[in-house]
# Entry
Amino acid sequence: MKQHRLDPSHLEYLTLQQLNESLLEEYLETMERFDDEMNVFEQLPQYQSHTDIKEFISHIVHSAHMKKMMEKEF
# Structure
């Protein structure tokens, strides 16, 4: 605000619809599960990508967690 990039009388994010708290908690839980899965990269510092990256991405995209996220309405 000191740099006058934000106008306190016109903060657009305040007009956004608030999401249900239980929905937010559900999303948070799902994102934390995704984050937990990423720990495999820490355990395998020399990890190289799959030779079939298409199959790897397809597995993620078609996972139950991704389906759950895609079914939610905002």
